[in-house]
Amino acid sequence: MKNPEAGGRRPGSRFGRQAEAERNDVRVLYAARAVFAEQGADAPVSAIATRAGVGIGTLYRRYGSKEQLLQRLCAIGIARTIAELSAALEAEGTGWEVLADWVAAAVDSRAGAFSALAGTFSLPEEVTVENERAKELAERVLRRGHEDGTVREDVTTLDLTHVIELFSRYPRRTEEDDHARRRMLALVLDGLRGPRTGLPGPRPDWADYQRTWDEPG
Asked: Taking the domains of the chain in order of start, what are their residue ranges?
């Protein structure tokens, strides 16, 4: 008789169950990102399970609490951000073109979806460290636009972070919503073009921003 582990894997085998668990995990993570982005920190875990098409027990077997799920999403998100920034640094084009492509990709992946949840859960140390790495890479991407004069000189990486966070929370319930989001983002990205200056108010401060992520108390 053919060994099921040597070729085809039966749905009921250990491998089949593992593959199904991995598929469920992907569905849960995608659903959680969307639900938290739309409903905030008070979103019920049951809404995530429903959108993912899994039972609530399946979700809790993988993530023991809402905080664990959020921490996992943040770890995945910052890893993707670093990968996208690294690719941007190798991309061809003007500084503005590279910057605009990166911001658009970050918005599409909802990289800033959890900004509204800042301070409601603790960030793992490794995520904090990777955040600093991402900031350094973003500075290098922005510097390219400043150096070739295609990005306005008064734009900062924190300005870009705010843009990504704002559009990551934009509702996407219908095709019309998505079309409107893309149009508004194109207008904002065009506003980054240099050489221009004259943005109102002082430059945003990373220290002030970081304090929003501190846990209450």
From this structure: 8-64, 73-211
| 151 beta partners | 193
**What pLDDT does 66 receive?**
85
CATH no., domain 8-64: 1.10.10
CB atoms inside a 10 Å sphere around CB 77 = 23
Residue-wise burial string across 176-196, b where 16 or more C-beta atoms lie within 10 A, e elsewhere = eeeeebeeebeeebeebbbee
pTM comes to 0.80
Residue 45 corresponds to which tokens in the numbers above?
């875990």
Q: How far apart are CA 123 and CA 75, in angstroms?
A: 9
| CATH architecture, domain 73-211 | Orthogonal Bundle (1.10)
- pLDDT above 90 for 86: yes
Q: Which amino acid, 155?
A: V
